[in-house]
Amino acid sequence: MRSRPLTRLLTAVLCAVGMLGVAGLSGCTGSTASPASGKITLGFSAWPGWNVWQVAQEQGLFAQNGVEVELKWFDSYTDSLNALATGAIDANSQTLNDTLMSVSGGARQTVVLVNDNSTGNDKIISRDGIAGVADLKGKKVAVEQGTVDHYLLLLALAEAKLSEKDIELVPLVTDAAAAAFVAGRVDAVGAFAPFTTKALERPGSRAIATSAEFPGAIPDHLVVKSDLVKDNPQVVQGVVNTWFATLAWIKDNRDAAVGIMAKRNGVSVEDYKSYDSGTTIFTRQQNIDAFTPGTTPQHLNHQARLASDFLMSTGLAKNTPNLDGLFNDAFVKAVPE
């Protein structure tokens, strides 16, 4: 799910730190009849939970909620992360792991909304003859290092009483990993939708582990530059309000919405519908519950600690991410019920 070369991301973060704002907490207001001050650019890329933004744009819901937003699609998720880190965009759709990686490098970013949790659309897929994760011992497994699917692989291996040392890890970007698996060059692959659809084209292939087995481990967010929260909270509020307004529109116009989202991801409507159960879109209350500090998988602070440990233990992060001020629930709390 949502992959990128970590060295490129870290370089971009380190180069941009001086340009980024300082995190701050601000009071929030609801949407207004006139546009909030300033146009912002919001990035998103291939993941079922983020296609909601495409619906918002096509239905004019940003304007209805008083904000002027340029929606920017990235064919490469990597590029969207770099764009936020360098200040080329104001907000981005990205995973918790990737946000922590940016913060570890010195970026000032704030999570203001939980879009969804992956509940099955991240998968470890194996060839015929491999019945479970324990059978991966000594096998070639393709995955992009440092991504949430690498994280999922390690969680699944640990549950099977194995470690990364017990497999032959083949580091490839996610689309190339899926292609290598289909071509028979590796025995298994870690991938996210829609690349899981490609991987499962290999005859006899099956998912032997999915994110559904690790609740809360892979949350996806709207992340903004922290100076936007400080300097223009009304814009952030308008974008968050738009998200929930769009979810309401999708509920009332399901077929039209699925058509828009499937087209954006370049898959058939039937394939897109198959992703439904694997991505759990969060309600306002689920957002509030996730932002509330706690010690269970549903709590973001808990998952952030686990993900930070992963980044540090694998050597992907050189500095422990600072979690102070990373999560700001003021905007979801201010959304009209």
Automatic annotation (TrEMBL):
Subcellular location: Periplasm
Coiled coil ranges: none
Identification of the protein by name: Periplasmic substrate-binding component of ABC-type sulfonate/nitrate/taurine transport system
Family to which this protein belongs: Belongs to the bacterial solute-binding protein SsuA/TauA family.
Primary localization: periplasm
Annotated transmembrane regions: none
Keyword Cytoplasm attributed: no
Record's keyword annotation contains Signal: yes
Signal peptide: 1-25
InterPro entries, alphabetized: ABC_SsuA_sub-bd (IPR010067)
Keywords: Signal
Organism lineage string: Bacteria, Bacillati, Actinomycetota, Actinomycetes, Pseudonocardiales
